[in-house]
Amino acid sequence: MNSSTIASPDENEYFETHSAPPNLPELSRIVQGFVLRHHAAGRHVVLVSSGGTTVPLENQTVRFIDNFSAGTRGATSAEYFLEAGYAVVFLHRQFSLLPYSRHYSHSTNCFLDYLSEWGRIGEDGNQAGGDVVVHSKYRAQMLDVLRKYRRAKEGRTLLLLPFTTVTSYLFLLREVAMQMQMIGNGALFYLAAAVSDFFVPPDRMAEHKIQSGDLSGAPETEGAKPATQAAATTKETGAGKKLVIDLDPVPKFLKRLVEGWAPEAMIISFKLETDPNILLYKCRQALERYRHHLVIGNLLSTRKFEVVFVDKEGEQWIRVPEAKDGEEQIEIESLIIPEVVKRHEIVMSAKKDGPMAGNQDSRAPSASVTQ
Ligand code: PMT
């Protein structure tokens, strides 16, 4: 395949020109078992995608492009879906936040701060034979999280599927979608991951670490691409080397998901913007382009406090009420998920005549939601 074909790849080309994760068949069997078991138990299954995807710049990857997403939206939403009785396939960026452990793993919330030492003082004045206990201040909250975590673990209702690169994300998304086809509109896709829009095609990817220094006199690098074929090249500027990266667009797989991989499922995509003036426009554009059920729009700066649901009936803002003195701010996902579940119920009760079935009356107002 030449580089001009790869410059405008479609979905098939993308999968043909990239290698699938080596353990994909095994993961596929695990997902199949998970979906079948929960379907038989009368549970709906939601795929929650979460976190950012990386775009490697080298085959033997030293450098990659990443994005800001920590996976808070996905991990928090997964907990509320579990509470609502769903089985959750959590397709997440490796090492991003996970349901339940997220309460203690964030960098501003070091888990050690939740612990204290309990025990007697030895003859030397130091603690001896002491023990580690949860600080009394945090016990009630931790007990609540622990119980929910245990319930999910014992019920095996949470399946963790990690990815790192945009390619492994896409292979996994396709595979999970195929396995979820068997439960029709009992399947829900909640795509909160921040998926990269650009990538380096394999035939233009540098094999080895891209060099910033002078290599004249060094032995020739094995597998080096001529500058005309390489996606990343360095240019001498006088004040040092400049790195120039030429990325291709990642095909929008949402279309393929809606039309082919999961035609009966309810599909919810997210749209992140930084400019409030274009958020609604971009949400409507996505809905029109992909013809799925719902777009949830959010702004980078306010995403924890407000989101907008956009479907073909219109918009509905969901806002976190201001916390009263001494109260903790509620999580916006505690308002989003009940609303999503309500809309999923409507989709499931509507006749199955296409991906937009049930969308007509799906903008039901909610008591806990501010408009
Ligand atoms: O993790 P946090 O820090 O909590 O942040 C959460 C979030 C802001 C990342 C999340 O709420 C969010 O908005 N996620 C979507 C970000 C976004 O705007 O993605 P996008 O515009 O690249 O894609 C829009 C939708 O198209 C996504 O739902 C994605 O699943 C889909 N997509 C994207 C790329 C691609 N190649 N194919 C796709 O189908």
Automatic annotation (TrEMBL):
GO biological process: coenzyme A biosynthetic process
One annotated GO molecular function: catalytic activity
SUPFAM superfamilies: CoaB-like
Region spans: Disordered: 1-20, 212-232, 351-371
Compositionally biased tracts (Polar residues): 359-371
Family matches, as PANTHER family: CORNICHON-RELATED
Name of the protein in question: DNA/pantothenate metabolism flavo protein
Taxonomic source organism: Sphaerosporella brunnea
